[in-house]
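User:
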Amino acid sequence: MKQHHTKYRPLYEAYILSHITEDHAGNSLTTDKERASFLFERFRSEYGWRIEQAGKRQAMTDWLSGLAIPIACYNGDIIDLAIRFGSIDPDPSPQLIDRVLENYWQFMANIILGMEGRESAAAAQ
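Assistant: Predicted structure:
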């Protein structure tokens, strides 16, 4: 059953962070705070130029669609993930599948950028 975004958002956040396991030097990243910090640091270092051109949201979408992190990228896997996390109902219509696939990278960019504010606020404390 489709859930409210406040229910499935944390599932996507945990999923994304679970795929950030080590830094460039191969050191393990064990906490969500470390993983999020590394994710944003890496994004800024690799796509800072794109942020200047198109803005942070578009730059993040572009970065993710280039498979910057190893999250679901195949159509079937994307739909399975959406069903598993409750962001769409099981047995979605073809139109819903098309809409989910069309908006996937933007959706994931929004999830990640939503973590940035909390990550930087936690770092300031």
